[in-house]
Amino acid sequence: MVHPMSAPATRGGKAHVTTLMQRLDKIILGSERHQRIRLRQWLIACVATAGCALFFAGGVFLGWMSWENLLILGVIEAIGQGLIYAALRSGFSLRFADPALTEWQTVLAIVAVDYAYMSAGSARHLALCPLLLVFTFGAFSLPWQRIARLTIFALASFLVSIAVMEWQRAPAIGWSLDSPEMLDDISALGMLLIVLPVISYVASRLSRLRSNLREQRVALASALEQVQRLAAYDELTGLANRRHAQDRLAPEHARAERSGTIFSVALIDLDHFKEINDTLGHAGGDRVLRAFADTVRDLLRGSDMVARWGGEEFLVLMPDSAGVDALATVDRLLQGVRGLRAAEGQPFSFSAGVTQYRRGEGFMEAVARADQQMYAAKHAGRNGVCLA
Predict the structure, then answer these.
(1) Contact 221/157 with Cβ under 8 angstroms?
(2) Cβ atoms within 10 A of the Cβ of 161, count?
(3) Residue 134: how many CA atoms within 13 Å on its side-chain side?
(4) pTM greater than 0.85 (yes/no)
(5) Is 289 helix (H, G, I), strand (E, B) or coil?
(6) pLDDT tens digits, one per residue of 177-229
(7) What number of other Cβ atoms are within 10 A of residue 155's Cβ?
(8) How many helices (H) does the chain have, and how many strands (E)?
(9) Spatial separation of the C-alpha atoms in residues 291 and 296, rounded to whole Å
(10) What is the Cα–Cα distance from 86 to 93, expressed in whole angstroms?
């Protein structure tokens, strides 16, 4: 029979373990998204390195590798991987063009492979296999120029390793192609001269494809941003369009209904705009609209919004403004645009209606009331502002 308290205790223990694992994960990998991705890649490389170390540890028992050489190989990897982890975890790697330090990790792996080849005796050819994995990693994060440079480094360092091995053997057997060891080393070098350039070429192709996909993704994101902007803003004036204005009015209305805040709206119609178009042409009319938009935008608060409502009509949303304050704001706009000139000697003005939102009504009802006041201002002789 299970004690009633055992199930909650078990759940509590699991929750404690989960919390502990989460804390450990945050300590090891950090919390920044890109840093975590780079450190996960580093962990994969460490797991692959540990697997190779276990393989060579088995070689100690089989007699083709010594404990001393295995220890030196482990120290090389531990120091190298420790320095790379410290650079990644501390953010120091962000100073480099490659924040993941993939090139440095590849160099470390190549050096480790060379030392393993020199130390693995009769099974040294097996030590070259990790090179395939090393260049596969590089294909997903390095440009083709660096991959080519690493390929040259790998071949050159392997050639140096062979030279060191033959120099160590020379006092005993001398330099001779009749030596089976030298023939084995030369055959390994020949195979690498064939295989590594091919792998490098394939990796560079993958790198170029990755680069092209990144460029296409950036271009797509830019195009999407442009589409979203065109959907929310008027192309001519740069102001919010009618749809975006309604999207701003809706949450302001909801806030007012929920918490009792106030806001006011104003509708502005440019006076005699048809005559301006007839005098200056449509291009001149467009210049007038842009000049008006720039002037009004500069005179409003950061929390206010002006939108092109349609044609030469504009809507101004003024959050947390009572009707009297909104009237003063729009009157200030009128004073500002009076300094503009539509044409030589022709003054510029607008007619506007202002109203404060009344709780319980829809926001379009407030806009309609502002529209009525705008027409009242036009009937009163234009060049003025009426408050509902």
Answers:
(1) no
(2) 21
(3) 25
(4) no
(5) helix
(6) 666 777 888 888 888 888 888 888 887 787 788 788 888 888 888 888 777 77
(7) 17
(8) 11, 7
(9) 9
(10) 9
